[in-house]
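Section 5.1 Outputs to date
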Amino acid sequence: MKFRIAFVLISAFFSSFAGAVTTDLNVKLVTELGKEEPHEALLSQAGVQWVGNNRGDGGSIAFAVEVYNADGKLLAKTPMKHSVDTIAAFGANKVIVVGEVSNPWQSYFSILSYSNGRISVDSHSVPEENLIGNFAGDASTLYFSEVGDNNVLHWTGSKMVPLKSSVRTPGRLVKVGNSIFIIEMNNIFGGSENFVKIDLGTDTAQRAFTTTRRKLSHLIYLPNRNQIAVTESYANQVLFIDAATNTLKDTIAIEGNPAGVATLGHCLAVSSNESKHVTFIDLNQATPTIIADWDLNGAGDRLKQPTAISFDQATGTLFARSNYPCPSCVGTQSSVFSFREPTGATAAQCSK
């Protein structure tokens, strides 16, 4: 009986993983972050990597946004008047940064663009009663999660207007067509989430699950499948939710506390915090299928947890960000590293 159980477990593992683990990676430290860095701000947009830096060591705080090329070279840096909590795409060549200042407490969002070695910044303050966190939309329709009042807010150009649909402790969100998809956290601790679709035409909410999930953390829209991929960290799996019906279509097991998500060609990449691996899932097959796995442990302790990831699509270079606040640590465990596979095999599989 014990042999049979062991055989079933081993078979289940190999049935969910079809690629060899890659350890032969060119590893480079892109930038160190402060020992108290709390945020995950990392984005690939318009051929460059955008990195938020909230350095708070030694009692001082200096907010900045940095831009790097595919080789990890710093191209530009600009100070920010507010923290850099999140960075999201904002049209073809711009990004939007959400953050806040304290004393008095106030939220901001800023529109940034990069050109010829310079970053331009256009900042907007938000009414003090609104504490915004995450962004969804584009240059014509701006939506933000509002944790304090359990709302999704619509920016009209002069004020924030809450949607009628209530979402308890809203987290990350994405706009698809005329709908907003959002992780409903239910509390700040994690481990009892739901997934909500808000129809912007009717302002009505539909929840995907009748019972709460085990830490839904990151999400990304997959247009070729019209699905949203959501990592369920405590359950060690990724959920694929149909955008038309807001129902679960597929799941795929990924060990090691899966968190960050990004795409490379027609593959979905998922980073795992505990194992420090990145798993590649082919989305062109009938069902999502794992085809490769990269081991990022060569970066050492400065990449404590690769919570956020992005890719340079032209070279297949992976950028991984750790934000692991540890004021008492001797050295920082928060940083951004790049990883490039010398053979280019994974990028080739994800582009053919």
